[in-house]
Every structure is written in C-alpha cells, then in structure tokens.
C-alpha cells in the first residue's frame, strides 16, 4: 500500500539532512512574497502569493499522478515521504526527554528551544515536559495525520498540498503588523485543510487513551483554545494521557494566559514517551482503517 511505503521511508530515512525540499520551497516562497508585496500587503496580494507559491507544484504533481503507472506510484510514495515528519518528531522529542529524565534540566531546556517558540530558559522540569508533550500532540496532526488524510483523499498531490500550505502558514500566518493581512489567506487555508484531520487525530487519541476523559476535555476545553484545530487535538490528547497541559507560557518575553488542557497530574519526563506512543499507536490505527476501507471499496 502506498501509504505504508511512505511511512516506511520516513521511518528508515527520516528528514533529509542536506538539500531538504522544504528549505528550497521556503526560499521560493520568500522570493514570491518579495515580488508580490509590490502589489500591496493586503489579503488579495497574500492570496495571490499563496496561489503562486503552492498551486503550480500541486498541479505538476497532479498531472503525473493522473497518468497512473509506476511513475505515478513512485511520485505518490515520494511525496508522502516528503510530507511526513514522524521520525523527526520522535527524534526531537526524545532529545528533550533523555536529558530531562537524567536530571539535565539545562540541556533539556536547550533542546526544547529548538522545537518550540516559547521562552524555555525559566521552565522547571514539569514546564519542559509539558511543552514537549504539547508539541508532540499538536505536531502529530501537523506532521503526520494531516498529510495522511490528504494522501488518502488525493494521493501524493494531496499530501503535497497539505505540507506546502502548512509551511506557508508557519511562514506567513502571524498576527503581526507585517502579516496580519498578507498572511490571512495562508492562515485560513491551513485552518480549512486541517479541520477534518485535526478532529480525526483528536478522535484517535481519545480511542487509544482514557477515552471518556479525552472526549470530555475535547468538548469542554477545546473551544477556549485560540487555534480551532490545535484545541481539539491537544485537549483530547491531554485527556487521553491523563495529564495537565496548557496554562500560562512566555512567548518572546510576553506572558500569554492560555486555558488549561486535560486533567490529572502535572506533566513529567515520562509523559513525553507516552505521548509519542499515543501518536505511534494512532498511526497504526489509521493504517488499519485505510486498509479496511480499501478492502471494502474493492470487495
């Protein structure tokens, strides 16, 4: 099955160490931004920039995919591998978990700073564990399940669309003076593409953890979260793991009061591996679901 092959490639190879395609795409998108900002910094210019940055590549992949055959299969598997970040997510999370479990709080803070945008210098052990678990749960959707769903729907072009849109949201989707209007399209399109994957991810977490508590946290806590997609994913994941997440956090020197997520004990180092196991088990659940759906369709 192409989905399993893409996941296998990610497991064996991980992210490219050199010549990462997303680095090249980021440079291309930055050039597109510089060019089209000459038209203004409004929503129309941002939507045009998004279209120029994303749609030609998706159209090219779609034309090859439509031809069928071995080339289309190879492209699909390669694009899914390109869109996935499962092994990378685990590597980054464990790079925090290992020193944290060994009592090396400074080392854990430093490695955490590589994967989150919040300030990490003042975090205690529980704060580091909480931030890492949050990152694992949220990126389970962004780096794995969103790509898997769009791959299941549209093949390699769908996975490519999701990954490029997610990348542009990370580049342009900020509520700053520079990007509030120009980046509006990138942020909203990413929200739309993530809407169903996020809820399926939240459901997967709930089914594979403390189900009743996860569903309760999803229903009662997610609406208060700023992101319409991260809220369900993280609330359900926190409930599934029986751990407390969310709460105040410092970003770029400013304290942000975030709602609480989950129930139970404060996060600790061991919860990072539990979060990774929850994501990994969810991947197996999705593979089984896709295989069952495929068998039913072709029966």
Automatic annotation (TrEMBL):
Keywords assigned: Cell membrane, Cobalamin biosynthesis, Membrane, Transmembrane, Transmembrane helix
Membrane keyword on record: yes
Biological or metabolic pathway of the protein: Cofactor biosynthesis; adenosylcobalamin biosynthesis
Topology of the protein relative to the lipid bilayer: Multi-pass membrane protein
Recorded GO CC terms: plasma membrane
Membrane-traversing stretches: 44-61, 143-165, 275-297
The keyword Ribosomal protein is assigned to this record: no
Main location as per UniProt: membrane
InterPro entries: Cobalamin_biosynth_CobD/CbiB
Subcellular location: Cell membrane
GO BP term, example: cobalamin biosynthetic process
Single GO molecular function: threonine-phosphate decarboxylase activity
Record function comment: Converts cobyric acid to cobinamide by the addition of aminopropanol on the F carboxylic group.
Family assignment from sequence similarity: Belongs to the CobD/CbiB family.
UniProt cross-references to HAMAP family, sorted A to Z: CobD_CbiB (MF_00024)
Protein name per the record: Cobalamin biosynthesis protein CobD
Species: Zoogloea dura
Lineage of origin: Bacteria, Pseudomonadati, Pseudomonadota, Betaproteobacteria, Rhodocyclales
């Amino acid at each position: 099955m192409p989905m399993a092959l893409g996941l296998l490639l990610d497991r064996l190879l991980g992210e490219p160490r050199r010549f990462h395609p997303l680095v090249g795409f980021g440079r291309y998108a930055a050039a597109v931004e510089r060019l089209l900002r000459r038209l203004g910094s409004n929503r129309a210019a941002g939507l045009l920039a998004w279209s120029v940055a994303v749609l030609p590549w998706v159209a090219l992949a779609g034309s090859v995919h439509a031809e069928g055959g071995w080339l289309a299969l190879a492209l699909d598997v390669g694009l899914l591998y390109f869109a996935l970040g499962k092994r990378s997510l685990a590597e980054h999370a464990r790079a925090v978990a290992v020193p944290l479990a060994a009592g090396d709080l400074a080392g854990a803070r430093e490695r955490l700073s590589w994967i989150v945008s919040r300030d990490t210098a003042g975090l205690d052990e529980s704060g580091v564990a909480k931030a890492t678990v949050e990152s694992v749960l949220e990126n389970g959707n962004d780096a794995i399940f969103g790509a898997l769903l769009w791959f299941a729907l549209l093949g390699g072009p769908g996975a490519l669309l999701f990954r490029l849109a997610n990348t542009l949201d990370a580049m342009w989707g900020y509520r700053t003076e520079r990007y509030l209007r120009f980046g509006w399209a990138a942020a909203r399109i990413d929200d739309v593409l993530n809407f169903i994957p996020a809820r399926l991810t939240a459901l997967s977490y709930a089914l594979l953890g403390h189900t009743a508590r996860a569903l309760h946290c999803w229903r009662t806590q997610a609406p208060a979260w700023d992101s319409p997609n991260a809220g369900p994913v993280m609330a359900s994941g926190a409930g599934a793991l029986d751990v407390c997440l969310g709460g105040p956090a410092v970003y770029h020197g400013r304290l942000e009061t975030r709602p609480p997520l989950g129930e139970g004990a404060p996060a600790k180092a061991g919860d990072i591996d539990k979060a990774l196991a929850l994501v990994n088990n969810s991947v197996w659940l999705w593979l089984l679901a896709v295989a069952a759906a495929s068998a039913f369709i072709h029966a």
